[in-house]
Amino acid sequence: MKVGVANFHCHRCAEASEWRESHMSNLILVRPSEEHITEIQAYRDEFRAYDTHSHGDSGLYKCEDAPAWVDLCHRSEKLPQPGRVTGSQFMLMREGETRIYGMISLRHSLNGGYLAEHGGHIGYGVRPLERRKGYAKTMLKLCLEEARALGLDKVLVCCDLDNAGSRGAIKACGGKFERLAITGAEVDERYWISLDGNPEPSLPPVNKSEPGFDHLGNFYTVRNNEDARLTSRHGLVEFLTTMRYVERYLTPAARVIEIGAGTGRYSRTLADMGHKVEAVELIPSNIDVFRANLKPNRDINITQANALDLSMFADKSFDITLLLGPLYHLYTGADKHRAIAEALRVTKPGGVVFAAYCLTDAAIADSGFGRNRYDVKEYVRRGLINPATFEATSQPEDIFELVRKEDINKIMEPFNVERLNYVATDLFTLWMRDAVDAMDDESFALYLRYHFAVCERADMVGASHHSLDIFRKNLR
Q1: CB neighbourhood size of 468 (10 A)
Q2: Interhelix angle 233-249/441-454, nearest 10 degrees
Q3: In the chain, how many domains are there?
Q4: CATH code, domain with 128
Q5: What's this model's pTM, rounded to 2 decimal places?
Q6: Is residue 207 one of the residues assigned to a domain?
Q7: What angle do CA 106, 109, 112 make, to 5 degrees?
Q8: Could you tell me if residue 420 is inside a domain?
Q9: Mean pLDDT of the residues in the chain
Q10: Are residues 119 and 254 in the same domain?
């Protein structure tokens, strides 16, 4: 039974594009039936021959044979097995031909368990000999029409961190990145695709005259992919460590503000956990990405503003205050004090503030001497690194301000706070970024456990590239 025909009109004149339009225009989604038994078996055998696992086929590889799988698909659409949701199974075929190019499954709902976190509404796969030809994107577009016909207004689609092809297909179909799904060592990227056609919310007006905007705006817009930074495996260590401590101090229905929210990685995660979040960000390009990745119906308000002036927020408003980026880019003691004073002002008595810093010695030893990201000798000549103590200072054009633990202690002296934790959020991770990125899941899980065990050790925290100072605002 046919359920859809691709009808995509390419507006380019290039010969390759015309070929692709013609090549994709008569593809259809077909429900499995007895007439496809021979080709279904061939499809399964091809995966076995290439020693690779198939996806999007409702467990074809687990079934005794092709007829048993066809029967399973028919039953799943009407009366699923216990613990499973109803779903429609499709095969991508060319009209009038028998070859199966790929398979895609559409779950009619999510059961709140694994599917809601990692599986999503749609799973798909392309047979080994037909990959990298555009079939995944075409198949996903066709399946979205089936989801609309079911009355769904949005669908969740997940992919592995290292599956660039699947990620590209999802984004080409309108997928907006939400967050990483992490269960133990399993990490997936979650994307939501809207089916109702509602436009993205408009951006607030921005003020490009803010102090430091020119240098920071250029860095975050042109030179740095901030949204991707915390989703790499080595960046994930910093994110998971920070969230581990944030969750320690969260209370039910806590009101949260993130100052310097970047592209919203933390804000979106906290909103997913049910917290009301105010997000403050200076750089418009970061706000663009933040809004593009924002899941519908999440309680987040985004304000374009500077960490030095939070006058739009009342005193004592928030239970948790995150200051995870601004202190990287403030170059005078007065500005650092002002940012922390503003963060404390909007925090309730007894509330907890998280302030992140970039540390001097890892930057000099690893980025300077080790990886030659900058010339240490030139920084000494410019007076930015003291040749005797190797203390560092920065100017706005240097982007990052570097500090040591004693500098942080001095910054905090005027404030009536109680330090709760001082944490190395990445510790050795960036020193060995390539090794961390290459770890298998089991090794990465073990590395995380090691990192969590030692990240507060006083004899080790100075080796970290980033640190997190966690303190409570005293009641008086």
Answers
A1: 26
A2: 50
A3: 2
A4: 3.40.630
A5: 0.56
A6: no
A7: 125
A8: yes
A9: 84
A10: no
Q: Give every CB contact of residue 467 below 8 A, 6+ residues apart in sequence.
A: 356, 357, 359, 405, 408, 422, 423, 424, 425, 461
Beta-bridge mates of residue 320: 256, 352
Specify if 152 maps to a domain.
no
> pLDDT digit string (tens) for 35-65?
999 999 999 999 988 877 788 888 888 888 9
Do both 431 and 328 map to the same domain?
Answer: yes
**Domain termination residue (choose one: 96, 116, 144):** 144
Interval 340-365: pLDDT, tens: 999 999 999 999 999 999 999 999 99
The two beta strands, 27-30 and 100-107, are unpaired
